[in-house]
Write a structure and sequence with these properties.
The chain contains 19 helices and no strands. With 475 residues, the protein is mainly alpha-helical.
């Protein structure tokens, strides 16, 4: 079993590569396709992802949890793998039928039928992607190498073939094609880890847990994926383009911490199955410390320099994405905290009902805010909905954890990290005020500010950054 630090390095490498590829392709795509076509692609992609949630249900969580618990037994691992794969295919088939009928009989969707039919491949092959299987086995080295290789192919295809605004359909096809290619390679590689017995595809053993976790994810999507779909119906594709531009940059920032949470899930499940409470609590404590250290400076940087980031990444015509981005970015902290509580603590403890309760409260709150705010404030209203909904969900988790005295939060670290980041904040503000060029402001102010934060964090005794670099953390 690889060390957590090794897994984190690989997952972080994947995150950085995703960021770099987005940084390379996103400015090109936004300028080539334009706001409206970007909005159309993102509307269709988010609608497809919404159907995909019903197809996948809770497999992304359930799969990692169950595979991690049987990782050392190949016979049992094979049985669990095919049980979960068969269950996923069953749900996917039902959803694909509904998806195609929706394209045919809903007039609003029919106008995007070319894109939506391409989306059928994304739904089908995502069920064959089995990323949960490799995450459960902690095969993060393989995941990283494979993903980066396919991303490079994707980048090449985008720059070679996407030339005009009319190429938005081809752009979406390339996006879906990367999912297809990943799935095919994964299925071939999985043969090294399982004994192929397709007779074990049909099983009802995990249906209840899959549905429970699936409802949890579906309710979460009410204030994430559904937000975009609702915005598209209410305000049109241009507003979707503004919001998804801001949201994409938010998701890139969040991905840095999500990398850590992802590698922690299988390990936390293994510790729970071994009843190793000491190491479980130790790793949870490290997670809080690392989250505060990473999320707080990134939020401050991306919020203060939102204008420069939007202009550099997306270009002119996306000015109305600046305010949504400034509203969205603090959500990173709430989601980061929620990921620790939900993914690293509540999920391994199999307290699925708590996940369901929190997501139900967040979904109802988010749905109400969508109805009240989006028709009047458009993409800004959608951004407010996301922030408020994620905050409510986070507070539900916090109340549960505190009531049952499961772990300590070490909230004093929040104040310390705000203090460590204050010199960088001053640099960001000065650069945005005195440097008129957005690119230079981002490079000079942002680069110098982040470097200053790193130097301060590294020189603080027992800071997570210092401990990780010196190989004294996450062992």
């Amino acid at each position: 079993m690889s060390s957590l630090k090794t897994n984190f390095v690989y997952k972080s490498l994947l995150t950085v590569s995703t960021f770099l590829i987005s940084f390379i392709t996103f400015p090109y795509i936004t300028r080539t396709l334009g706001v409206e076509n970007i909005g159309i692609v993102n509307f269709v992609d988010n609608l497809t992802n919404y159907f995909l949630l019903f197809a996948s249900m809770g497999i992304s969580i359930l799969g990692v949890r169950e595979i991690a618990s049987v990782a050392k037994d190949k016979e049992l691992r094979s049985k669990v793998f095919f049980n979960l794969l068969g269950l996923n295919l069953l749900f996917t088939t039902a959803v694909l039928i509904i998806y195609i009928l929706s394209i045919v009989f809903i007039p609003y969707l029919s106008q995007y039928k070319e894109l939506l039919y391409i989306g059928t491949a994304k739904i089908l092959f995502t069920s064959l992607l089995i990323e949960w299987f490799f995450s459960g086995l902690e095969e993060f080295r393989y995941i990283t190498i494979r993903s980066i290789a396919i991303k490079l192919v994707y980048v090449g295809a985008v720059f070679i073939f996407i030339k005009t605004p009319n190429d938005y359909i081809l752009y979406f096809a390339f996006t879906v094609g990367s999912v297809v290619l990943n799935a095919i390679i994964n299925l071939l590689y999985a043969r090294q880890f399982v004994i192929y017995k397709f007779t074990k595809l049909i099983s009802i053993h995990y249906i209840k847990n899959n549905i429970t976790l699936g409802i949890y994810l579906l309710l979460n999507s009410t204030y994430s994926t559904f937000n975009v779909v609702f915005l598209g119906f209410v305000a049109g594709n241009i507003q979707v383009g503004y919001y998804t531009t801001a949201f994409k940059l938010y998701s890139i920032v969040l991905a840095f911490f999500s990398s850590f949470t992802t590698v922690m899930l299988p390990r936390m499940n293994a510790l729970i199955s071994q009843n190793d409470k000491n190491n479980f609590n130790r790793l949870v404590s490290h997670s809080f410390s690392l989250m505060y250290s990473i999320c707080i400076p990134l939020i401050l940087f991306s919020t203060i320099m939102a204008s420069d980031i939007i202009y550099v990444i997306a270009g002119k015509g996306y000015e109305k994405a600046i305010i949504p981005m400034m509203i969205i970015m603090p959500t990173v902290f709430m989601v980061g905290l929620s990921q620790i509580l939900a993914v690293q603590i509540i999920t391994p403890l199999k307290k699925d009902k708590i996940l369901l309760s929190a997501s139900l409260i967040g979904a109802l709150f988010g749905l109400g805010l969508n109805i009240c705010l989006v028709p009047y404030f458009l993409s800004i209203g959608t951004a407010i909905t996301l922030l408020c909904s994620e905050t409510i969900v986070c507070f539900v988790y916090i109340i549960y954890i505190l009531r049952h005295k499961i772990v300590s939060f070490h909230s004093n670290l929040i104040v310390k990290n705000l203090f460590y980041s204050s010199p960088s904040v001053l640099v960001y503000l000065l650069s945005t005020i005195f440097i008129n060029n957005h690119f230079l402001s981002l490079v000079i102010g942002g680069g110098f500010g982040l470097a200053l934060w790193f130097l301060i964090s590294y020189n603080v005794s027992n800071s997570p950054i210092r401990l990780i670099i010196k190989n004294k953390q996450l062992v």
